[in-house]
Amino acid sequence: MKFLLLTSVLIAISLRIFYNYLTSVPERPKIDPQRWWGSGSKPAKEDESIRPFKIDFNDTMIQDLKQRLINRRRFTKPLEGIQSEYGMNTDYLNKVLTYWVEKYDFKKRAELLNKFPHYKTRIQGLDLHYIRVTPKVNKNIKVLPLLMLHGWPSSSKEFVKVIPTLTTPQDGYDFVFEVIAADLPGFGFSEGTNKPGLNPVQIGVMMRNLMLRLGFKQFYVQAGDWGSQCSTHMVTLFPENVLGYHINMAGSIRRISIVKLLLGSLFPTWIDSDHPERVYPLTKYFTYVLRESGYFHLQFTKPDTIGVALTDSPAGLAGYLMEKMAIVSNRDQMDTPHGGLESLDLDDVLDTITIIWVNECIVTSTRLYSEGFRWAEDYALQDTPTEVPTAAVKFLHEVVYHPDWILRDKFVNLVRSKSYDIGGHFAALHTPKEFAEDLFAAGAAFLNFHSQKK
Ligand SMILES: *[C@@H]1O[C@H](CO)[C@@H](O)[C@H](O)[C@H]1NC(C)=O
């Protein structure tokens, strides 16, 4: 009897110690908010001007690209009876490349992007590009400044379908957004660095500096994919600057969350009555991840090697990127010739590829997979909770699905969470209507959070 009691006490104490370990918050890393990422060393004075910018797909570039596409070598045919199971279906790829050469209207696509005001400004030595749309509304409509951050292989282009809605008053809401959609450094029209260490923490610092440069001391943030890694660090480091955070790829990778996710597989419906099937059974989920995440390890370990091939061949670049964009857009279509790509507009997909081709930024953008896993400051901040009010939106085919009880480990004030039975990873391109609706609902939840605190 005494032995049993003693054992129980010991087990209880060990569990408590283990729990304390899992939930302990690491020491806050020391971050230089003005670290220099430009070539050479920091000058005495930095150019702080804001310059209007226009996107130009010029004739020289178009001619050269078309020549390379037309002169491509013959691809190996897919195996008999095989769709996308071995990777990019080359019959399908050929069709898309023909479309890119013959039908894709470079000038018109650039014109569509240029409907929005574009700018560049130098932050910490790098020229950053962003779209800024200021709504024209009367005084009784509140204007919420919103920073929007994309992921890989995207750019601010990902948001052009939602910007008009976000900047126009909607029924039932007394506010609109002023949108600042930025290209991450090394992505789209933003300059990349030639210094190691520009990880999501440091990009979060840069993006906050961009908002401060534009005069916003307090603002809202929307992000997914790598953009959400960067902005999750931003809200953790600088909660005083961010009034609300809307994520479309919400996850917590705190130690406690990982353990909860594993334990959850014992009683999935009990921990998440919403959509347990999106992550459990874990074996099914990990089979999908294992099948589709080879690129992740490749880009984490050797981004520059794959970068040589992708920089040199537009057909190779298109094949590589289309396969990635497909598998996260519709998991039910992985074994079709397009692999899920047809959930998106082909012109949107080709805009993304063209922007990377024009800016020769496949290496600088792909390196983020490497920088994202190399630095202790990243891990320390991942394990630190944040109190910035947060809204999670979960689209059907998003790669990451975490139940709310796990998200709250990281986002203590999870003020809203909604699952949709449609959509995927590139939410603003795929389901722009629902994406914008959710963002308005989140804006209302953030305003409500702050008015209750007063
Ligand atoms: C055309 O665009 C390419 C890619 O942006 C650029 O490198 C080149 O300098 C441009 N050429 C002209 C003549 O403007």
Automatic annotation (TrEMBL):
Lineage per the UniProt record: Eukaryota, Metazoa, Ecdysozoa, Arthropoda, Hexapoda
Reaction it catalyzes: 1-(4-methoxyphenyl)-N-methyl-N-[(3-methyloxetan-3-yl)methyl]methanamine + H2O = 2-{[(4-methoxybenzyl)(methyl)amino]methyl}-2-methylpropane-1,3-diol; cis-stilbene oxide + H2O = (1R,2R)-hydrobenzoin
Keywords annotated in UniProt: Aromatic hydrocarbons catabolism, Endoplasmic reticulum, Hydrolase, Membrane, Signal
Domain Epoxide hydrolase N-terminal: 50-159
First and last residue of the signal peptide: 1-24
Membrane topology: Single-pass membrane protein
Family statement drawn from the similarity comment of this UniProt entry: Belongs to the peptidase S33 family.
Name recorded for this polypeptide: Epoxide hydrolase
Main location: endoplasmic reticulum
EC number, UniProt record: 3.3.2.9
Localisation per UniProt entry: Endoplasmic reticulum membrane; Microsome membrane
GO-annotated biological processes: epoxide metabolic process
Gene Ontology MF: a single term: cis-stilbene-oxide hydrolase activity
Residues at the active site: D225, Y369, H425
Function: Catalyzes juvenile hormone hydrolysis.
Protein's UniProt keywords contain Hydrolase: yes
Gene: LOC113498265
Domain of life: Eukaryota
Gene Ontology CC annotation, any one: endoplasmic reticulum membrane
